[in-house]
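Design review, sub-item: ligand-bound model
Attendees: FS, YL, KQ
YL presented the inputs for the cytidine-5'-monophosphate complex:
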Amino acid sequence: MSDLVGKHIVLGLSGGIACYKAAELCRAMTREGATVQVVMTAAAEQFITPVTMQALSNRTVYGSHDVSGFDAREANGMPHINLSREADAIVVAPCSADFMAKLLHGRADDLLSLMCLARPIATVPLLLAPAMNREMWAHPATQRNMAQLAADGATILGVGSGFQACGETGDGRMLEPPELLDDLIAFFQPKPLAGRQVLVTAGPTFEAIDPVRGLTNRSSGKMGFAIARAAREAGAAVTLVAGPVALPTPRGVTRVDVRSAREMLDATQAHLPARGVFVATAAVADWRPAEVKTEKIKKQDDGALPQLEFVENPDILATVAATPQAVQGELYCVGFAAESHDLLAHAQAKRARKKVPLLVGNIGPDTFGQDDNALVLVDAHGSRELPRASKLALARQLVADIAARLDRPHAEGVAR
Ligand code: C5P
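KQ shared the predicted structure:
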């Protein structure tokens, strides 16, 4: 809960029913450690009071009475200059269709639009969270304005879809506060994987015995989901092939749900990039029942026990590591090892066996289902420990490490 520590955000509210979500967003940003300065248009004040936003941000709100942009509370009388120069980012949420149109034309007849225009464009990013009726959103004028605003350097955070306050259903809802928060956190992360493709496998597999029973394991999928999120934050296009877990999909990540090891292999092969990174975190079942009964196995009156025979599952990582793109170093493969003891030795042996340039070891029983972990990175030259931290923090370190390997011209496992 400290991803925005040290960040000062100007949160601008323009008029729209989604102003009620801005209260939650403000709270979420402060919970992550940001300081938040709220600036509201007169229209926004029709939907939510400055008192609410002041209490949540713990700062005096700049509102519609500061219309001229000049304010006696400021030594120089110029909040539009001062507020925009202090900010690490200006986030307008909600950003109405009218406010977008205003920004597009560089108009500046209220403090918020004046401040957006006066911001140092090279150093203070402007992020917009549109919120409007679906017809307004789809209108060519709005779409044109949005494209031009993006060309002018604004970041458009996109919209949600669903039931709207007007009673209609479609695109144009403001994103939910947790989604906006994740987008803002991602915005501030470095982008060493920009333009790269990453495929991650995560979670356990489920191997059916009969229509109601199966074999699985205790993998929660959290480490793999954290790596998918971190890779996306780092700018990659990310596909996450997930076994049966109930975790939410990280923002901007394409998720493919599978159950069995064979389904996971099929999905992995179908989405494998020709160039990029493959990270296998999934705890794939080593074996599956040789035969899946079509009907539930019943208890026998004589107490006879069912006899299960097993066959070996495909090794997804080894299969991918043997593809031409991996062998030629176009696809950088990273494996995981969950061990219970002798972590380093097992990780080194597994790296050699799977023929991957990088293997990440962790102690399985210490991490299954937890939000934190400790990792050891093993490559051809040695090992490096990443001490216990949250899975997301470790995932970001791992992603940075992988990105640095891709950029190193003669790194092992990377095409020259
Ligand atoms: O052989 P072991 O299961 O210990 O290897 C772990 C590594 O191999 C992990 O990266 C895991 O995702 C991958 N793996 C796989 N397919 C399997 C077994 C393991 O991709 N059938």
